[in-house]
Design goal:
Elements: H1 30-35, H2 37-49, H3 56-70, H4 103-116, H5 121-138, H6 143-157, H7 162-174, H8 178-191, H9 196-208, H10 212-225, H11 229-241, H12 245-258, H13 262-278, H14 282-295, H15 300-312, H16 316-329, H17 333-346, H18 351-371, H19 377-387, H20 390-403, H21 407-419, H22 423-433, H23 441-453, H24 457-470, H25 478-488
Length: about 500
């Protein structure tokens, strides 16, 4: 298959810079998506409240509802709100502007330029990358079709331009299509061996395909060719997956010292916070999350991570308040599940219903993600195993395992098999999830429970002890269950 892939059937329609088709819809102001943020969240909540959909007509109705909400209604409902400052100059925008400053303003400037210069393949590629970044930072998968259209436009004008090929790699990775991410990254690197985005996406794809030795080699190559924050963070993660926390921390600290923009500072500091939290060092985690939020007070991973560290430190009230703020803006599966489990752990009046509402919203987000081309099987497996349809969790985990063999998919499949009463089948996957040395307490907890269920009592006790020693607050519910299982196995 060529680098364009099977999903790139040529679209002969003319596209506007915002991803709409010229002559078929009004241009969407950049600010409209943000004005529609509340509508987006409300639509996801309405979809979740509707429960599971069993008929095609119902699914189409909710898909339309979510599509309207995720565009803020700007096209379908005719609402308009211009951004506070709309650039009017038609000068090309330096791609470096996307590394810092106001992403929405950068997108607005790109749109303005492309209206005046619609054949500028370079800025079509930059716009596509900007939409991918916007989807990531705002938790809005509706940006992915816009990104795809912009990147296609760039490649139609300049089929071999490395910026658009690297953009397609980043987009495929964001949609969890890692085989195509690798194909596009390799195509971009054939044109420009020093493309930072392509080098980074290649590492991401190899990691997410479970090809860890190749990922380590790709990280070394990228570090030699284009050292910098994007490569440093990936280099660190490759080492963390192998259990080399010391090297991971050293590289991340180096990346933090090299960060020059608020976005880079927030990103790297949050990565350090996550690394600290994984090792049960909540004080250091909170310090790093504070630094991330000082750089960008709305940075979602830092807000979520801070709440997780607060919960593990015993400050459940602050954790719940923080996660409520996060999901009110970005109802993503991770924080929704965490908030639901915190409600369950608190156990106050009405908390059971509150928790169930969060879990229902996960299903709504997954439906929306799939409607925008995202493979959400891993999200489904992780959420449904403990808080949803267990059979659906197993189907999703098996489908994901068929695509890629990572420690995360091995753990998800092991746990999905366990909750469906298939512990003998689960054990090899649980062992595989921990085989690289990756220090993850949840993986060790899952393995310990499965080992106990299969009669490996000494091994089960050891795994549970390791989980609780590593990160005693790894989950609001899982940690308590690990302690109970360990006590019962004595």
């Amino acid at each position: 298959m060529g680098p364009r892939g099977q999903d790139d059937e040529k679209d002969e329609r003319t596209e506007n810079p915002d991803g709409t088709n010229a002559g078929t819809a009004e241009l969407r102001p950049v600010g409209a998506g943000e004005a529609g943020g509340d509508a987006r969240v409300a639509a996801v909540r309405r979809a979740g409240a509707a429960g599971r959909l069993r008929h095609g007509s119902q699914l189409a109705l909710v898909a339309a509802l979510l599509a309207v909400a995720m565009t803020g209604g700007a096209i379908a409902l005719g609402t308009h709100r211009a951004p506070a400052s709309q650039p009017v100059a038609a000068a090309a925008v330096d791609p470096g502007v996307l590394g810092g400053g106001d992403l929405d303003a950068s997108i607005a400037a790109l749109q303005t330029h492309l209206r005046a210069q619609p054949k500028d393949s370079g800025d079509w590629a930059t716009l596509g990358l900007a939409y991918v970044e916007q989807a990531r930072t705002k938790g809005d998968p509706s940006r992915y079709p816009q990104a795809e259209q912009a990147l296609r436009r760039s490649l139609s004008s300049a089929p071999d331009n490395d910026r658009a090929l690297a953009g397609r790699a980043a987009l495929a990775a964001a949609r969890h299509d890692f085989e195509h991410a690798l194909t596009f990254a390799d195509a971009a690197l054939r044109q420009n061996p020093y493309s930072e985005r392509a080098l980074s996406s290649r590492i991401d794809a190899l990691v997410e395909l479970g090809r860890y030795p190749e990922a380590a080699k790709a990280a070394r190559t990228a570090d030699a060719r284009k050292p910098g924050v994007p490569v440093f963070t990936r280099y660190a993660y490759v080492h963390e997956l192998r259990g080399d926390v010391t090297t991971a921390r050293r590289v991340l600290e180096q990346a933090l010292s090299a960060a020059t923009s608020p976005g880079d500072t927030a990103y790297v500091a949050a990565q350090l916070g996550q690394l600290d939290w994984n090792q049960g060092d909540y004080k250091s985690a909170l310090r790093h999350y504070a630094r991330a939020l000082a750089a960008d007070d709305g940075y979602l991973p830092a807000l979520e991570g801070r709440a997780r560290a607060q919960a593990a430190s015993g400050d459940r009230a602050a954790a719940i308040k923080g996660l409520e703020a996060v999901v009110s803006r970005y109802p993503l599966p991770g924080p929704l599940v965490e908030l639901g489990e915190l409600y369950e752990a608190r156990g106050a009046a009405g908390d059971g219903a509150r928790a169930r509402r969060q879990y229902a919203l996960v299903d709504a987000w997954i439906a929306l993600a799939r409607a925008n081309g995202v493979n959400a099987d891993l999200d489904t497996a992780l959420a449904a195993a403990d808080h949803g349809d267990r059979a659906a969790a197993l189907r999703a985990a098996r489908a994901e395992w068929a695509r890629r063999h990572t420690v995360h998919t091995a753990d998800a499949l092991a746990w999905a098999l366990h909750v469906n009463g298939r512990d003998a089948q689960a054990l090899p996957y649980a062992r595989r999830a921990t085989a690289t040395g990756y220090r993850n307490a949840a993986f060790r907890y899952h393995r310990g429970v499965i080992e106990l269920a299969t009669g490996h009592r000494a091994a089960g006790r050891s795994s549970l002890t390791t989980a609780l020693r590593l990160n005693p607050g790894f989950s609001p519910l899982g940690a308590a269950r690990a302690r109970a299982a360990l006590e019962g196995a004595k």
